[in-house]
Amino acid sequence: MASNEEILAGLAEIVNEETGLAPESVEMDKSFTDDLDIDSISMMTIVVNAEEKFGVRIPDEEVKNLKTVGDAVNFISGAQS
Amino acid sequence: MPRKVVITGLGATTPIGGDVPTMWANSLKGVSGARTIEADWVQKYELPVTFAAQATTPASEVLSRVEAKRMDPSTQFAVIASREAWRDSGIEDFDHDRLAVAFATGIGGVWTLLDAWDTLQAKGPRRVLPMTVPMLMPNGPAAAVSLDLGARAGAHTPVSACASGTEALHLGLDLIRSGKADVVMCGGAEAAIHPMPIAAFASMQALSRRNDEPELASRPYDLARNGFVMGEGAGALVIEAEEHALARGARIYGELAGTSVTADAYHITAPDPGGLGATRALKAALFDARVQASDVVHVNAHATSTPVGDKPEYVALKAALGSQLDNVAVSATKSQTGHLLGASGAVEAVMTVLAVYERTVPVTINLDNQDPEIPLDVVTSERKLPSGDIVAISNSFGFGGHNAVIAVKNV
């Protein structure tokens, strides 16, 4: 089980890989669309890569609820337990 | 009189140089871009052809990682070449609504398509990435170039196999003459050095199998020619209404005086042995350019180095240019670059324009024993073009019976 800190770091790595954004800019309260300017195609790529990295399934209907980085970290953390 | 259209910017990334100055210098020297492919898939699939002419400069050295991730290799090449051409044109202030794109490809995003298929089989549908469709679509290069430049007068993708790159110039000329645009970024891109296209081209006996001597394999007009060599890369040309170029004091390489496209309607892959479609295309391009056969001094030939392809082009040149053909310096630059398929016409157009501008022509390598049935004046060492008004022609022919020709004049 990864801690929330580990999930955040892993997610930041995935976001950096996809968008080039600095990993430290990926913070819990940041909105994927409004703050990080991530479009829907990049978001789906990030979701698919996160599924592989953390060994979880993030259903398509759940993705729209992942508005902030924190939402994603919490969802992944919950799905792992 | 139709609007006069001039060429003001050139770009290229090819197997003999990752930019125009390098490619041009090498083309005058005579170098081969063909090498053994260093990839595990050559052995894995036991490919009958183990070499190709790969681009000298990997896209990763030019584009950022994030940029490259969202582009198929064919689109990466298109963006690299078009950025060079755009910088070269010196255009700064312009009306985005009057800039169009005509960027061709023969095959499109074949790497993306087949990688996604491999992913689907190995890992299931969830792992097929959401960018797959925009990356594999054949209009991907044109769309990416339009996005990159902010070109809003339309982004077009002529697809006519190995005539595609030349057809892009044909379309670009039309767009300016008809008043739909003032400037067009024309070009062609291809990135198909992948095991499946190699297997498919080899299966139809189109590729040279000179695996032990890749650099000697592409030998247009030579008696020992036995097929073409796969190449990859892109060429790009900024063409512009003359009044637009003059108003901004642009450096003008030459005039895109005329173009033409015809179809053989003879056979899906074999060229018409009488070269009739190609002859009509040549005559139509000269007519469109309002020049005579006697004005032509240089031809950048399609000449792919296949046993069946090289001769009908000679027959067509003879029919269209008559006795003037004796005074025409012919370059078969695929001897150096390999065959860039849908990008070949664009790369060869760049060389043709530079030949007129610099009055010197690229050389043909590997011509040891010229086929006596093709008695062309093939340039194998440094050759200058005459002073005064001159016309140069570039031919491209594609599977499907597509013939495309451009005629370039000095200014």
Describe the protein's architecture and organization.
The complex is a heterodimer of chains A (81) and B (411). Chain A is mostly helical and 81 residues long. In chain A, 58% of the residues lie in helices and 0% in strands. Chain A has four helices and no strands. In chain A, helix 1 packs across helix 2 and helix 1 crosses helix 4. The termini of chain A are close together. The mean pLDDT of chain A is 94. Chain B has one domain (1-399): 3-Layer(aba) Sandwich (Peroxisomal Thiolase, Chain A, domain 1). Helix content of chain B is 34%, strand content 18%. Chain B is built from 14 helices and twelve strands. In chain B, helix 8 (164-177) packs across helix 14. The interface between A and B is small, with 11 and 10 residues.
Our count of domains of chain B comes out at 1
Corresponding CATH superfamily of chain B? Thiolase/Chalcone synthase
CATH topology of chain B: Peroxisomal Thiolase, Chain A, domain 1
| Overall average residue pLDDT of chain A | 94
What is the first-to-last residue Cα distance of chain B? 17 Å
For the sheet with most strands of chain B, the description reads:
10 strands, mixed
The number of helices of chain B is 14
Structure class of chain B = alpha/beta
Low-pLDDT runs of 5+ residues of chain B are: none
